[in-house]
Amino acid sequence: MASSLAFSFFFFFLFSLSSSSEAAGSVGINYGRIANDLPTPSKVVELLKTQGINRVKLYDTEATVLTALKNSGINVTVAMPNELLSAAAADQSYTDTWIQTNIISYYPATQIEAIAVGNEVFVDPNNTTNYLVPAMKNVHASLVKNNLDKTIKISSPIALSALQSSYPTSSGSFKTELIEPVIKPMLEFLRQTGSYLMVNAYPFFAYAANSDTISLDYALFKQNPGVVDSGSGLKYDNLFDAQIDAVNAAMSALQYNDIKITVSETGWPSLGDSNEIGAGEDNAASYNGNLVKRVLSGSGTPLKPKDPLNVFLFALFNENQKTGPTSERNYGLFYPSEKKVYDIPLTVSEVNKSSSAVAPVAAGTGRSQVPVSGGGVSTAGNSGKTWCVANGGYSEEKLQHALDYACGEGGADCTAIQPGATCYNPNTLEAHASYAFNSYYQKMSRGTGTCDFGGAACVVTQPPSYGKCDFPTGY
Asked: What secondary structure letter does DSSP report for 382?
């Protein structure tokens, strides 16, 4: 039964992929050059073409690279580095010259489609945040002078650290101190110019920092129970979608839900230090390979299902002169020798070929999302009918934390305890927590250890009584 369902799912996936390719998202790659052993730009362009990659993002406007990309058919995103923002913000004549030297000198033979003004400016130690929007406006005005504003978009990549809240996903919000000075003006600029927000999203960082509560399978797009957002009721089956929708929710909270997102960086390291949990070749191949399939399927996120995803993988090469932990030098899909670090599909045809040639990947051995004590999770259910309810004597803070966990990472179905729903009353923390704990417990087939939540829950043999609410006994 399970194998036939898996086959049916993958048949449906392949059919959807081939039938929706016109509306599918795009996969590009970041071409960083902080290394002393990389191939020449002309060889890199040939590598991109042989791999079917038709979008590339750069971190500057280096002349040899832009020249090599001429007449290649590859769309290019260039960047104005952070150190130039103060000059760009202060004087439009500076951006006029910059555009003439770095854009017009190569365009249209080099198909420049966007300019990234700065990179993760909000975490720049040189404090360039106040220059960002004025610099973007001056760059745009210089494009207007040259009639290029309709064909070349302007944006600026932000890190997820720009969010004050990202969990649950529906609570996504920007840091308060950034909203009025820079976030709102930037989003207004993007709206007025018909551009998009660039976002650097790395599920690897979230997993490495929270591997005790985030499932590795959830981070790698593998089979997992999923996570139901306690606010929206939407179900997420991967961390990437949840991160992107946290940004969508943050923009929506400011009334800018019409701004689309391009993921300007995302990736997973093939090697890391001993404390970089999850770094490794197999996980990198799973993340990037499954992400490509996810993007090329054409579907959007749960919050924006009709918006195809456009993603730039990080990165093309391992870069041996990058500073920081070992992972920083090992995000590449290729070694400098141009040999693949691991083999993943990068185009629709490759995805179709690989998916039809191999069996579906089974769920991995990631850590359980369940907060248990005294051993792991058994799949053997308790005999008879049992329920899981909140344990008396716990502080409201701990009980609320356990409730948030059950409805969030735990993936319990908490729609019945939302305002106006069948089990919202009695509107007490104990009643809502009991419903959520039981939902998770029943979903996990009443397995040993699945009714614990750090001691906040216990198993009972009589059906709980909270108003007129019926607690489920199985899924």
From this structure: P
Supply angle C-alpha 398, 403, 409, rounded to 5.
Answer: 115
Q: What are phi and psi of 115, to 5 degrees?
A: -120, 120
Tell me the residue range of the domain where 434 lies.
387-460
Same domain assignment for residues 236 and 311:
yes
Closest alpha carbon to 121 in 106, 132, 110, 113: 132
Same domain, yes or no: 402 and 336: no
For residue 399, count other CB atoms closer than 10 A to its CB: 23
* pLDDT above 60 for 364: no
pTM: 0.72
Q: Which residue has the tokens 């949990």?
A: 277
Largest Cα–Cα distance of the chain, in whole Å? 78
Mean pLDDT of the chain, nearest integer: 86
pLDDT value at position 155? 98
Residue 440 lies in a domain: yes
What are the beta bridge partners of residue 116?
79, 155
Catalytic residue among 180, 265, 281, 319: 265
In contact, 390 and 434? CB cutoff 8 Å:
yes
> Peptide bond preceding 168: is omega within 30 degrees of 0, i.e. cis?
yes
Residue 432: inside a domain: yes
Provide the b/e sequence for 141-153 (b: ≥16 CB within 10 Å): ebbeeeebbeebb
Annotation says 120 is catalytic:
yes
Residue 361: partners with Cβ closer than 8 Å, 6 or more residues away: 222, 286
**Chain centroid to CA 439:** 27
Is 177 one of the catalytic residues?
no
Number of helices (H) and strands (E) in the chain: give both, helices first: 15, 15
Q: Which of 22, 46, 113, 120 is catalytic?
A: 120
Lowest average pLDDT, out of 63-77, 111-125, 317-331, 339-353, goes to 339-353
Integer Cα distance of 156 and 136 in angstroms: 8
